[in-house]
Write a structure and sequence with these properties.
- This protein has about 150 residues and is of the alpha+beta class.
- The protein has a single domain, classed as Immunoglobulin-like, CATH 2.60.40.1890.
- Helix content is about 15%, strand content about 50%.
- The chain contains two helices and ten strands; from the N terminus they run αββββββββββα.
- Strands 1, 2, 3, 4, 5, 6, 7, 8, 9 and 10 form a ten-stranded mixed β-sheet that branches.
- A hairpin with a 2-residue loop joins strand 4 and strand 5.
- The protein is globular.
- It starts with a helix and ends with a helix.
- It binds copper (II) ion.
């Protein structure tokens, strides 16, 4: 019986955790910057716990000359990437938006040098309302990201 009560207590705690915190948070920042190409991409999860819409409007990534916000679109049978409409990724109030492989991403253009997997990288994200949010991303290889993307 005790374990049943404990179970419900844990459910309650879980429910409490999912109540909007009133903040905009960014998690699971992964940077695909290991390849010897001049580009790369960054994926992350934005949770808008506030009651007003916000939008990611830009980012600064060390070692990236130009940073753009991109989405993937189907052009006939070909998947292409292009800058997001209006130059921003809208995160509606109370919702979560995921930037992930094959979809929305932060594009690193004019990358200076490839980075080692496991490296931490400081990224400054600019939001329309929340302003600048500094996050730490982990440099991972594309294969690792494939595995982590459903987390
Ligand atoms: Cu892109």
């Amino acid at each position: 019986m005790k374990s049943v009560r404990l179970f419900f207590l844990m459910l309650l705690l879980l429910a409490a955790c999912s109540i909007p915190s009133g903040e905009l948070t960014v998690e699971n920042v992964r940077a695909n910057l290991t390849l010897p190409s001049s580009t790369g991409s960054v994926w992350l999860v934005i949770e808008n716990g506030t009651d007003s819409d916000d939008a990611l409007i830009g980012a600064e990534i060390p070692g990236c000359g130009v940073v753009e916000l991109h989405d993937m679109i189907m052009d006939g049978d070909v998947m292409k990437m292009q800058p997001v409409e209006g130059g921003k990724v809208i995160v509606p109030a109370g919702e979560t938006v995921e930037l992930k492989m094959g979809g929305l991403h932060i594009m690193c253009i004019d990358k200076e040098a490839p980075l080692e997997p496991g490296t931490s990288i400081a990224i400054a994200l600019q939001f329309e309302n929340a302003g600048t949010i500094n996050v730490t991303g982990e440099v991972v290889e594309p294969g690792e990201m494939e595995m982590k993307k459903d987390n």
